[in-house]
Write a structure and sequence with these properties.
Elements: H1 2-74, H2 84-108, H3 111-132, H4 139-164, H5 172-177, E1 185-186, E2 192-193
Antiparallel strand pairs: 1-2
Protein backbone atom coordinates (compact mmCIF):
# COMPACT_ATOMS: atom_id res chain seq x y z
CA UNK A 1 0.00 0.00 0.00
CA UNK A 2 2.87 2.29 0.77
CA UNK A 3 4.27 1.64 -2.65
CA UNK A 4 0.92 2.52 -4.25
CA UNK A 5 0.68 5.81 -2.36
CA UNK A 6 4.28 6.69 -3.31
CA UNK A 7 3.43 5.99 -6.97
CA UNK A 8 0.27 8.07 -6.68
CA UNK A 9 2.17 10.98 -5.11
CA UNK A 10 4.84 10.67 -7.80
CA UNK A 11 2.18 10.73 -10.52
CA UNK A 12 0.45 13.72 -8.93
CA UNK A 13 3.77 15.58 -8.71
CA UNK A 14 4.46 14.76 -12.37
CA UNK A 15 0.99 15.91 -13.44
CA UNK A 16 1.36 19.11 -11.38
CA UNK A 17 4.78 19.77 -12.96
CA UNK A 18 3.37 19.23 -16.48
CA UNK A 19 0.43 21.54 -15.74
CA UNK A 20 2.71 24.16 -14.24
CA UNK A 21 4.99 23.93 -17.29
CA UNK A 22 2.03 24.30 -19.65
CA UNK A 23 0.66 27.31 -17.78
CA UNK A 24 4.12 28.90 -17.62
CA UNK A 25 4.66 28.32 -21.37
CA UNK A 26 1.23 29.79 -22.18
CA UNK A 27 1.83 32.89 -20.04
CA UNK A 28 5.34 33.39 -21.44
CA UNK A 29 4.13 33.07 -25.04
CA UNK A 30 1.22 35.41 -24.37
CA UNK A 31 3.51 38.06 -22.85
CA UNK A 32 6.02 37.71 -25.70
CA UNK A 33 3.28 38.10 -28.32
CA UNK A 34 1.87 41.12 -26.50
CA UNK A 35 5.32 42.74 -26.35
CA UNK A 36 5.90 41.91 -30.01
CA UNK A 37 2.58 43.56 -30.88
CA UNK A 38 3.43 46.66 -28.79
CA UNK A 39 6.84 46.90 -30.45
CA UNK A 40 5.21 46.61 -33.88
CA UNK A 41 2.78 49.40 -33.03
CA UNK A 42 5.56 51.58 -31.64
CA UNK A 43 7.67 51.04 -34.73
CA UNK A 44 4.71 51.88 -36.96
CA UNK A 45 4.00 55.08 -35.02
CA UNK A 46 7.69 56.04 -34.99
CA UNK A 47 7.74 55.67 -38.78
CA UNK A 48 4.66 57.89 -39.06
CA UNK A 49 6.25 60.45 -36.72
CA UNK A 50 9.47 60.47 -38.73
CA UNK A 51 7.51 61.03 -41.94
CA UNK A 52 5.46 63.80 -40.33
CA UNK A 53 8.52 65.55 -38.85
CA UNK A 54 10.49 65.38 -42.11
CA UNK A 55 7.50 66.57 -44.14
CA UNK A 56 6.95 69.46 -41.74
CA UNK A 57 10.56 70.65 -41.97
CA UNK A 58 10.37 70.34 -45.75
CA UNK A 59 7.22 72.47 -45.84
CA UNK A 60 8.87 75.05 -43.59
CA UNK A 61 11.81 75.23 -45.96
CA UNK A 62 9.44 75.63 -48.93
CA UNK A 63 7.62 78.45 -47.16
CA UNK A 64 10.93 80.09 -46.34
CA UNK A 65 12.09 79.88 -49.95
CA UNK A 66 8.78 81.34 -51.20
CA UNK A 67 9.08 84.15 -48.63
CA UNK A 68 12.63 84.97 -49.72
CA UNK A 69 11.60 85.19 -53.37
CA UNK A 70 8.69 87.49 -52.59
CA UNK A 71 10.77 89.67 -50.25
CA UNK A 72 13.65 90.05 -52.68
CA UNK A 73 11.36 90.94 -55.59
CA UNK A 74 9.30 93.30 -53.45
CA UNK A 75 12.47 95.01 -52.18
CA UNK A 76 13.99 95.21 -55.66
CA UNK A 77 16.87 92.87 -54.77
CA UNK A 78 16.01 90.37 -57.52
CA UNK A 79 14.04 90.28 -60.73
CA UNK A 80 12.04 87.27 -61.79
CA UNK A 81 9.71 86.54 -64.68
CA UNK A 82 6.92 86.04 -62.11
CA UNK A 83 4.94 88.96 -60.76
CA UNK A 84 4.84 89.96 -57.13
CA UNK A 85 1.21 88.79 -57.05
CA UNK A 86 2.22 85.33 -58.36
CA UNK A 87 4.95 85.11 -55.73
CA UNK A 88 2.50 86.14 -53.00
CA UNK A 89 0.10 83.41 -54.14
CA UNK A 90 2.97 80.92 -54.14
CA UNK A 91 3.79 81.91 -50.58
CA UNK A 92 0.12 81.51 -49.59
CA UNK A 93 0.10 77.99 -51.06
CA UNK A 94 3.36 77.08 -49.32
CA UNK A 95 2.11 78.37 -45.97
CA UNK A 96 -1.13 76.40 -46.43
CA UNK A 97 0.86 73.20 -47.01
CA UNK A 98 3.02 74.04 -44.00
CA UNK A 99 -0.08 74.46 -41.83
CA UNK A 100 -1.38 71.03 -42.82
CA UNK A 101 2.02 69.48 -42.04
CA UNK A 102 1.99 71.27 -38.67
CA UNK A 103 -1.42 69.74 -37.88
CA UNK A 104 -0.01 66.28 -38.60
CA UNK A 105 2.83 66.95 -36.16
CA UNK A 106 0.24 68.06 -33.60
CA UNK A 107 -1.56 64.72 -33.97
CA UNK A 108 1.51 62.51 -33.56
CA UNK A 109 4.06 64.34 -31.41
CA UNK A 110 4.62 64.65 -27.70
CA UNK A 111 4.47 67.94 -25.81
CA UNK A 112 8.16 68.83 -26.25
CA UNK A 113 8.02 68.42 -30.03
CA UNK A 114 4.75 70.32 -30.27
CA UNK A 115 6.22 73.17 -28.23
CA UNK A 116 9.24 73.31 -30.55
CA UNK A 117 6.96 73.25 -33.61
CA UNK A 118 5.03 76.22 -32.23
CA UNK A 119 8.35 78.09 -32.04
CA UNK A 120 9.01 77.27 -35.69
CA UNK A 121 5.52 78.40 -36.66
CA UNK A 122 5.97 81.74 -34.88
CA UNK A 123 9.37 82.36 -36.46
CA UNK A 124 8.05 81.47 -39.93
CA UNK A 125 5.02 83.73 -39.48
CA UNK A 126 7.28 86.72 -38.75
CA UNK A 127 9.20 86.00 -41.96
CA UNK A 128 6.06 85.74 -44.08
CA UNK A 129 4.68 88.97 -42.63
CA UNK A 130 7.82 90.89 -43.54
CA UNK A 131 7.99 89.20 -46.96
CA UNK A 132 4.44 90.37 -47.70
CA UNK A 133 5.08 93.84 -46.34
CA UNK A 134 2.58 93.38 -43.51
CA UNK A 135 5.38 94.34 -41.14
CA UNK A 136 8.26 96.58 -42.04
CA UNK A 137 11.89 95.96 -41.28
CA UNK A 138 15.41 96.43 -42.52
CA UNK A 139 17.47 93.82 -44.31
CA UNK A 140 19.34 93.21 -41.06
CA UNK A 141 16.03 92.59 -39.28
CA UNK A 142 15.06 90.26 -42.13
CA UNK A 143 18.27 88.31 -41.62
CA UNK A 144 17.67 88.21 -37.85
CA UNK A 145 14.25 86.65 -38.49
CA UNK A 146 15.93 83.91 -40.52
CA UNK A 147 18.47 83.32 -37.75
CA UNK A 148 15.58 82.95 -35.30
CA UNK A 149 13.87 80.48 -37.66
CA UNK A 150 17.09 78.50 -38.09
CA UNK A 151 17.46 78.26 -34.30
CA UNK A 152 13.81 77.19 -33.93
CA UNK A 153 14.25 74.48 -36.59
CA UNK A 154 17.34 73.19 -34.79
CA UNK A 155 15.36 73.03 -31.55
CA UNK A 156 12.62 71.15 -33.38
CA UNK A 157 15.22 68.70 -34.73
CA UNK A 158 16.60 68.12 -31.23
CA UNK A 159 13.17 67.47 -29.75
CA UNK A 160 12.10 65.25 -32.67
CA UNK A 161 15.29 63.19 -32.39
CA UNK A 162 14.68 62.69 -28.66
CA UNK A 163 11.04 61.73 -29.33
CA UNK A 164 12.13 59.15 -31.90
CA UNK A 165 14.87 57.79 -29.64
CA UNK A 166 17.67 58.68 -32.04
CA UNK A 167 20.97 58.15 -30.27
CA UNK A 168 23.83 60.58 -30.41
CA UNK A 169 23.94 64.25 -29.72
CA UNK A 170 22.60 66.83 -32.11
CA UNK A 171 25.02 69.66 -31.57
CA UNK A 172 22.55 72.47 -32.12
CA UNK A 173 24.78 75.22 -30.77
CA UNK A 174 27.70 74.20 -32.95
CA UNK A 175 25.37 73.69 -35.89
CA UNK A 176 23.76 77.11 -35.39
CA UNK A 177 27.15 78.79 -35.05
CA UNK A 178 27.90 77.96 -38.68
CA UNK A 179 25.50 80.71 -39.69
CA UNK A 180 22.94 81.03 -42.40
CA UNK A 181 23.55 80.66 -46.07
CA UNK A 182 21.95 83.94 -47.09
CA UNK A 183 23.08 86.03 -50.03
CA UNK A 184 25.31 89.04 -49.53
CA UNK A 185 23.66 92.42 -48.97
CA UNK A 186 23.07 94.02 -52.34
CA UNK A 187 22.17 97.56 -53.20
CA UNK A 188 19.52 98.59 -55.74
CA UNK A 189 22.18 98.57 -58.48
CA UNK A 190 23.15 94.96 -57.64
CA UNK A 191 26.49 95.79 -56.00
CA UNK A 192 27.46 94.02 -52.77
CA UNK A 193 27.18 96.22 -49.69
CA UNK A 194 28.22 95.55 -46.13
Amino acid sequence: MEEASVDLVGQLVTIAAVLLGAVTTYITNHLMERNKHKLGLRTRWDEKKLDAYADYVGKIRSSGYAAVLLYEVREGMRTLPRTEQDLAEGLTDAVGDQSLAFERVMLLAGDAVIDAAHGVQEAMAAITWQARGTTEGTLEEWRALHTKLFTAINRFHERARADLGVSGAFLGDQHSARGLLLPENRGKDGSITS
